[in-house]
Specification:
Strand content of chain B: 15-25%
Order of helices and strands of chain A: HHEHHHEHEEEHEHEHHH
CATH architecture of chain A: 3-Layer(aba) Sandwich
Oligomer: heterotrimer
Helix content of chain A: 40-55%
Distance between the termini of chain B: 85 Å
CATH topology of one domain in chain B: Chloramphenicol Acetyltransferase
Largest sheet of chain A: 5 strands, parallel
CATH topology of chain A: Rossmann fold
Number of strands of chain A: 7
Radius of gyration of chain B: 38 Å
Shape of chain A: globular
Chains: A alpha/beta (about 325), B alpha+beta (about 425), C alpha/beta (about 325)
Number of strands of chain B: 19
CATH superfamily of one domain in chain B: Chloramphenicol acetyltransferase-like domain
Distance between the termini of chain A: 42 Å
Radius of gyration of chain A: 20 Å
CATH class of one domain in chain B: Alpha Beta
Largest interface: A-C, 45 and 42 residues
């Protein structure tokens, strides 16, 4: 039995759940529809508990490889809202300086390695991280997130096998949100629960209610503790539901309406609010105040990003190689 | 029928093997696939089975000997010739597999399969008017050296003129035909060889009478020295702008004017402008009078095999750049082919000479009487110079002016030269 | 005072280079299949497990994609991994991690990925279609990577050391035909050969033959043969394919005015096409003949000896092309 998170952690988790929800809503339902965000938009509405419940436990020296549905992981590790919005809006002072979009942002000092669009490729990268963390013997771990659709890719299997046989401190966190674009799980794989894959590779595999942030927290905590102690990797299947289309331009008409209604009742934010209210850790007034503060923070980030410059066309040539005159060291970064 | 036994290749990168032990002696019977010898290589030790049944006839590699893979190490005399002769791994190449090259002449597209063979007949004699095939490289070399390609023998495919052909031509040609300094030192030229004379001595001395032309030159030179107070001043000009202009405009000049663009018209135009500023250079001395001449009749010294001749561009001040270039080319070519009229070598008022064509840095030319000055240009070559306190590589040339100190003082001469130098360094007049 | 240097094969030179880098920098480590106690399929890593331990010489499962991906992850954590592909033919199993992960990270978010992916490539050893490929152009086409292909033992050592020290992902092609067939004096000390610089192996005047890998030796043999016929070949060994040494290539092209681009790789999409374009663009005025390519035909590498012999460029084919071009 694991201990429940302390009240400070609960409050922090509520903050990040709400911040994530507000920021993503602003991106998907406002800015994108205003034409202020170009390209693809992918949000993790309804799945916020997975990023929050896991990233909140990370220590200095730990590394996370989030998926595109784990906006909260970036915030918790220390990316500012401003720089995240600058990247969404393709500005020159975002973390990729306009070279890559959405949440393909990384920062080694913060211990965040981003995905590439070839989902699943970060799993072997996490193994490489694990090899180094294990040798350094500081007890640090790597968390790598991916969806259930991604588990059909070969890289995930190679990585799970490698992590198990080499006993690497890597926690594989599968965000099973029931749909991979338009493909439901019964067309994606033949097992009932992906958690069985853990055993298939020689590591513990468990499933958890991905909309219960406290359950996610305690399940991940167990796996992290195992990894820190040198006992090797673990696989966690978080059952959740994708409350949006695959992307902002997908109306998800293939999803039966009743599923949306069903899962709305299990909304992770509402559930945590209930716990905090019931436990008299926060009252309604405080929560409303929090909502107001969060809205202001997002407003600020949006305004900052909108006022930031676009990159110069010719800058496209720079920074291909890491050489002595590394272009990346110059040029302004956002705050 | 004998079967060769070879050293096998035990691994992709293995190149040799060492015989450790022969398991049979010559004269022994051996069955097919029976172990015959043991080897060791970088990668592995192995027992090698016999490729055939028969009698071990001879051993060609001894124990402990290291041989290359596929070397024949023994011979077995088989009883059954049928399939005994297993082919040794080294196969004789099949006759001339088609070569994957594209050395085909340009008109044929994608001729990959057939070995390329020139479709045209071998080199035909050059016919006047026939299209001369050559690359832009060869044409450029020809232009720079004022070579008429129809005079060059082509030994390339289909009679085309190759780089080798034109370079050979240039080596053999006399330098007298070159009218301007060579701008590209990469093309080797050996003008000196052509001037070499052969003198056969039958005693301690050999006497030759001067030709009439030589006599005239000798007299003129001495007379000039006795007449004028010769002083020479030397300036250095940065010719980079002009070199670049010339490079840039040569093709178009050729296309639009039908003329090769040389350095001479640049210098001639600049000299004309300088003379306009300093008319004393366009004068002559008679007794105690200085006679200023209105027309600038510019003499261009041309070196011939037999000596020197100075055709004159009359009223050079009226000529624009293309006009000057045309006049220079016309007079120089007729000078070489000895087709000048007598008026064309008279009444010059100022002379331009060019010792640079043979590589001279600068000289001290002798005034062509009754003129009062002569301007020479040395070789144009790249030199390190200081610009803005840093070393730069620029195309530089020395300009030398011999002037008659009876009527022109050093200060005036130097001002003239400074003006001229500035004209050349800041060249702006469009060439077309 | 000249101390006589040891003669090393190309393979031993690579091994020595890796060994020295492992000694010099503890962030260098190796991963790959069978590289530990077995010493590697070609024995390049022989002895390294005993010397450096299993943390630095890691035997992996058969997972090329995971091997490269793990190398990337380790590099992001500050290490300098050298990943072995048992045969470069198998690098395609890890292609995605190389071209989409490793090659693009620095461009996208400024983090360096100092990995080396190395392995044996090339034909001439009856290896068949999957143990003989020259697939370097897959990577020459990807901005963000560097691609290296030494031809001599000296260069093999100098270049593997330079590649390990480079802060970018380097794909390192070792020609398996040369592993034990070429040897020379290699200094028993620290030296590097810089990436991006070609070497003129033989000076000539009539035709510049620009090539790399095992073909450098074939070109030199052809040059020797043709010298007797009065045709002087200049042989340029590219050494690095990306970035290639444009300056050296153009200088040789301009000097000789005739060019043969030679590679064991197949024709369409081979490096010859790229270099022919650069030479035509920038040295057109100095050419005195068409740019010629001598390459393998556009087929997989066949197995049976007469087929493989037909497939590969050789002295005869180079000489024939040179004679025709010289006569143009």
């Amino acid at each position: 039995m694991t201990s429940a998170p302390d009240t400070q952690t609960l409050e922090r988790m509520l903050y990040y759940l709400k911040l994530t929800r507000e920021a993503e809503t602003r991106i998907e339902q406002v800015l994108y529809r205003q034409g202020k965000i170009v390209g693809g938009v992918y949000v993790g509405r309804g799945q916020e508990a997975i990023g929050v419940g896991s990233a909140i436990q990370l220590l200095d020296g730990d590394v996370v490889l989030p998926s595109h549905r784990d906006f909260s992981s970036f915030l918790i590790r220390g990316f500012s809202l401003r720089e995240i919005f600058c990247n969404w809006m393709a500005r020159s002072n975002g973390p990729t300086r306009g070279r890559d979009n959405t949440l393909h942002i990384g920062n080694l000092k913060l211990g965040v390695i981003p995905i590439i669009s070839h989902l699943g490729d970060t799993c072997p990268v996490a193994c490489g991280v694990g090899v180094v963390l294990k040798q350094r013997k500081n007890g640090n771990v790597a968390l790598v997130h991916f969806g259930e659709g991604t588990t059909s890719r070969g890289d995930v299997h190679e990585a799970m096998n490698m992590a198990a046989v080499m006993k690497l401190p890597v926690v594989f966190i599968c965000n099973n949100n029931a749909y991979a674009y338009s493909t439901p799980t019964d067309k994606q794989y033949a097992v009932k629960d992906l958690a069985v894959r853990g055993a298939a590779y020689g590591m513990p595999g468990v499933k958890v209610d991905g909309n219960d942030v406290m359950a996610v927290h305690s399940t991940v905590e167990k796996a992290i503790r195992r990894a820190r102690s040198g006992s090797g990797p673990g696989f966690i299947e978080c059952k959740t539901f994708r409350m949006t289309g695959h992307s902002a331009h997908d109306a998800a008409e293939y999803v039966p309406e009743k599923l949306f209604a069903q899962w709305k009742k299990k909304d992770p934010i509402a559930r945590l609010e209930k716990v905090l209210l019931a436990g008299k850790i926060l009252d309604r007034k405080q929560i409303d105040h929090l909502d107001g503060e969060i809205r202001k923070q997002v407003d600020d980030a949006v305004a900052y990003a909108e006022a930031s410059p676009f990159p110069k066309g010719a800058d496209a040539r720079e920074g291909v190689y890491c050489d002595d005159e590394c272009w990346w060291r110059s040029a302004p970064r956002s705050e | 029928m004998p079967t060769n036994v070879v050293m096998p290749q035990m691994g992709e990168s293995v190149a040799e093997g060492t015989i450790v032990k022969w398991l049979k002696r010559p004269g022994d019977r051996v069955e097919r696939d029976e172990p015959l010898f043991e080897i060791t290589t970088d990668k592995v030790d192995a027992e090698i089975p016999s490729p055939a049944a028969g009698v071990l006839a001879k051993i060609l590699a001894a124990e402990n000997e290291t041989v290359a893979v596929n070397t024949v190490v023994a011979v077995i005399n088989g009883e059954m010739p049928a399939e005994a002769a297993e082919p040794a791994p080294e196969s004789t190449p099949t006759p001339a597999p088609s070569v994957e090259t594209t050395a085909q002449a340009p008109p044929t597209p994608a001729a990959v399969e057939a070995p390329p063979v020139p479709a045209k007949a071998p080199a035909e004699p050059i016919q006047p008017g026939a299209k001369l095939r050559s690359s832009p490289l060869v044409r450029r070399i020809a232009r720079e050296h004022n070579v008429d390609l129809s005079r060059v023998k082509g030994t390339g495919l289909g009679g085309r003129i190759s780089k080798k052909d034109i370079l050979k031509f240039l080596e053999r040609r006399t330098p007298a035909m070159a009218e301007t300094p060579a701008a590209r030192p990469s093309v080797p030229s050996k003008p000196a060889a052509a001037y070499g004379q052969t003198v056969t001595f039958s005693g301690p001395t050999h006497v030759t009478a001067m030709t009439p032309q030589r006599r005239l030159i000798a007299e003129h030179m001495m007379a000039s020295k006795k007449t004028s107070a010769h002083v020479t001043t030397v300036f250095e000009a940065d010719m980079t702008n002009i070199v670049q202009t010339r490079e840039r405009m040569a093709a178009e000049f050729d296309r639009s004017q039908g003329l090769k663009l040389t350095y001479t018209p640049f210098i001639a135009r600049a000299a004309v402008e300088a003379i306009k500023q300093f008319p004393i250079f366009n004068s002559s001395v008679e007794g105690t009078n200085i006679i200023y001449k209105q027309a600038i009749n510019l003499g261009i010294a041309v070196a011939l095999e037999t000596g020197l001749i100075v055709p004159v561009i009359k009223r050079a001040e009226e000529k624009d750049f293309p006009g000057m270039a045309r006049a220079v080319q016309d007079l120089a070519s007729r000078a070489r082919s000895k087709q000048l009229n007598v008026e064309e070598v008279q009444e010059g008022t100022f002379t331009l000479t060019n010792p640079g064509v043979f590589g001279s840095l600068f000289g001290t030319p002798i005034i062509h009487q009754p003129q009062v000055a002569i301007l020479g240009v040395g070789v144009i070559e790249k030199r390190p110079v200081i610009r803005n306190d840093a070393i730069a590589i620029r195309s530089m040339a020395y300009l030398m002016l011999t002037f008659d100190h009876r009527i022109i003082d050093g200060a005036v001469a130097d001002q003239f030269m400074a003006f001229l130098k500035n004209q050349l360094e800041t060249w702006q007049e469009p060439v077309i | 005072m000249n101390k006589s240097m040891p003669q090393l094969t190309y393979l031993e030179a690579i091994r020595q280079g890796i060994w020295e880098e492992m000694e010099r920098d503890t962030s260098v480590f190796l991963l790959g299949e069978d590289i530990g106690s077995y010493g590697g399929a070609f024995k390049v890593t022989s002895g390294m497990l005993e010397k450096f331990g299993e943390d630095r010489v890691i035997d992996t499962p058969i997972s090329e994609s995971a091997i490269v991906g793990a190398a990337v992850g380790a590099a992001l954590m500050g290490m300098r991994p050298v990943a072995e592909m048992q045969f470069m033919d198998f690098v395609s199993c890890g292609l995605d991690q190389i071209v989409n992960m490793a090659a693009k990270i620095h461009y996208r978010w400024g983090a360096a990925v100092p990995i080396v992916v190395r392995g044996p490539s090339g034909a001439g050893v009856h290896g068949g279609p999957f143990h003989s490929q020259s697939n370097e152009m897959w990577f020459v086409h990807v901005p963000g990577l560097k691609v290296v292909a030494p031809a001599t033992a000296y260069d093999a050592k100098g270049l593997i050391k330079a590649s390990i020290r480079d802060n970018n992902p380097v794909i390192f092609y070792e020609h398996k035909y040369l592993y034990r067939r070429t040897r020379e004096e290699v200094p028993d000390e620290d030296f590097i050969v810089p990436l991006g610089k070609a070497a003129v192996r033989r000076k000539g005047t009539d035709i510049a033959v620009i090539t790399y890998g095992a073909m450098v030796w074939t070109a030199l043999e052809a040059a020797e043969l043709l010298a007797g016929e009065g045709i002087s070949l200049e042989v340029v060994d590219l050494r690095t394919l990306l970035p290639y040494d444009e300056q050296c290539i153009l200088a040789s092209a301009r000097k000789c005015s005739k060019v043969i681009l030679l590679h064991e790789d197949t024709r369409v999409g081979g490096l010859g096409g790229e270099l022919a374009a650069v030479i035509a663009e920038k040295a057109f005025e100095d050419l005195d003949g068409p740019i010629v390519r001598v390459t393998a035909p556009d087929t997989p590498v066949p197995f049976s000896p007469p087929l493989e012999e037909y497939f590969l460029p050789n002295v005869q084919k180079i000489a024939d092309a040179a004679r025709q071009l010289a006569a143009y």
